[in-house]
Design brief:
40% strand; globular; 337 residues; Beta-galactosidase, Chain A, domain 5; 4 helices; five-stranded antiparallel β-sheet; ten-stranded antiparallel β-sheet; mainly beta; single chain; 21 strands
Length: 337
Amino acid sequence: MRLGLSKQLWNCLILFAAFCSTMTQATCVFSAQIAAESHVSEKKVGIQAQESELRVQVEGNQVARFVFKDPVISRPYFCDLKSLQGLQLSRTHPPVPGLDKTDHATMHPGLWLAFGDLCGQDYWRLKAKVRTSRVRVLDTMRADEARFELVNEYLSSTETQVVCTERAQYVVRWLPYGYMIVLQSTFMPHESPLEFGDQEEMGLGIRLATPLAVDSQLGGRILDSSGRRNGAEVWGKTAQWCDYSGPLGGHWCGMTIFSSPTNFRASWTHARDYGFVAVNPFGIQAFTKQAAVPLRVAVGDSLQLGFAVVIHQTEIESGTEPAEIYTTFQELLSKNQ
């Protein structure tokens, strides 16, 4: 059965999970440096703030790190994404020679949003820097959720000019079989219009643990909302969701990635059998061979992008079908409207 997130469902998810009026702000405010301590209550989901990163805890265990200051990787990213039971589901960061595929060691840290061509600057390949100028961790009244916000400045390669500002909001929500990370970002030009280029390396990317990669031949597979499987079928197609998962430690584990249907355009899936998937709404020429159509954002206007990733572990493959994830989204929203 083909199921995906409808526009109405996505809007409910963002409105409820990210903007619920009953949420109260508690705080750790960062302005270049952390200005207050974080608070982790006895919740299913919590965040601990460190000088250069946020540590995400679910059910009392650390399941991910969100790094916003790194001397080598010049853009924010999640790494060390684990299941609720502690299995490593993103590739080890940094990759371990002999155990992991070591390609793109810095460009593919785990989960990230990046652009290979934004006003001619290349943030995907780390040739220009994204500077996080502010981070704010918010507490909520919900025991199964945590939120944080940040402001990123996209710098020119010479670091002498701010190309644009991004205001990003993240929600981490507990699920019975894992957790979901919801991202909504707003991009605003600084002094000149923005131009998002047309290439493969744009959008939200994930890098799976090496044993889950199709190429590892241990049972991992890629599956999209149209039933296409693995890189040869999935690459370059639009889809409502794409799941990359496989057997690991006696369980079925992986990640499912979604693009918001409220984005300016549907996303193409950049899927590779070596363990990588990105969803990219910019690559008309890159994926279809039609004429390139860069996206321009005038000064005073803005661009909003929304994505979600579900990190999951169950006992059997059918327990992680994206249709089941879709149903869980519906249940969560209907109970809390």
